[in-house]
Amino acid sequence: MGKLSGFKYREIAKKLQEFGFEFFREAKGSHEIWYSENTDRYTTIPKHSGDMPEGTVRSILKQANIEVNQFLNL
């Protein structure tokens, strides 16, 4: 297991809020789009129960332009 495994939706959403992201709108299926005015970037988060796969968390961080170490140290 990598260092980004084991995160749940709520934990990711809370950390994104600390980076300045806010819920923007619902997306297709059980996904949400979040937006940051500070960076003018969007990211899509699946709103599923259970742990998020590590690759999904990496994709969220890449869209949000957040480094893995920044995310983990927050």
From TrEMBL:
Q: Name one GO molecular function term.
A: mRNA binding
Nuclease: present as a keyword of the record? yes
SUPFAM superfamilies from the UniProt entry = YcfA/nrd intein domain (SSF54786)
Keyword field: Endonuclease, Hydrolase, Nuclease, RNA-binding, Stress response, Toxin-antitoxin system
Pfam families listed in its UniProt record? HicA_toxin (PF07927)
Q: Which family does it belong to?
A: Belongs to the HicA mRNA interferase family.
Name this protein carries in UniProt: Addiction module toxin, HicA family
What is the scientific name of the source organism? Candidatus Yonathbacteria bacterium RIFCSPLOWO2_01_FULL_47_33b
